[in-house]
Specification:
With about 150 residues, the protein is an alpha+beta fold. It is built from two helices and nine strands, in the order H-H-E-E-E-E-E-E-E-E-E. An eight-stranded antiparallel barrel has the order 1-2-3-4-5-7-8-9. The N terminus is likely disordered.
Length: about 150
């Protein structure tokens, strides 16, 4: 009788051990979580003919400015203000205002926000002073859409 009691303990212990590994591996979502405090500050990014400045504040707001680069001269293009929200490694940016720079009048002009550009959602990562934005996970693109460096 004591042998029979001992034999059932082994499968139960193995099942408990297997379940503990299963639950422990479910925490992989936590590994992708980005510390919002690491975002706070000003970041710059550039492409061949364009430069961006992106500033995140601790109250959940962001400011973004874009500049053309023509023959080593930086020219104002747009500025945008909005709110950002972080969930894990996903950031949603909701624009609240958008202005373009008018070179003829040398002033900023309010623009109506295009409906498809009011809310943008990206995967992102922060590694040291490098902020990378990626297309959402359902995209086949694995390389960053844009990379910024903290100032």
């Amino acid at each position: 009788m004591t042998t029979r009691k001992s034999l059932w303990r082994l499968p139960v212990l193995m099942l408990a051990l297997a379940l503990s590994f299963a639950f422990a591996s479910c925490n992989s979502d936590d590994d992708d979580t980005v510390d919002v405090a690491a975002l706070i500050g000003t970041w710059t990014g550039a492409t061949v003919n364009y430069q961006y400045t992106l500033t995140f504040t601790s109250d959940g707001a962001y400011n973004q400015e874009g500049f053309f680069i023509v023959k080593s001269t930086v020219k104002k293009d747009f500025r945008e203000k909005g709110l950002f929200k972080v969930e894990g490694n996903t950031m949603t940016m909701t624009a609240t205002s958008f202005e373009v720079y008018d070179t003829e009048t040398d002033s900023w002009i309010d623009e109506e926000l295009p409906e498809d550009e009011v809310v943008l959602t990206y995967r992102f990562s922060v590694k040291g002073k490098k902020l990378s934005f990626f297309a959402l996970e359902d995209s086949k693109m694995k390389e960053p859409v844009m990379v910024f460096v903290k100032q």
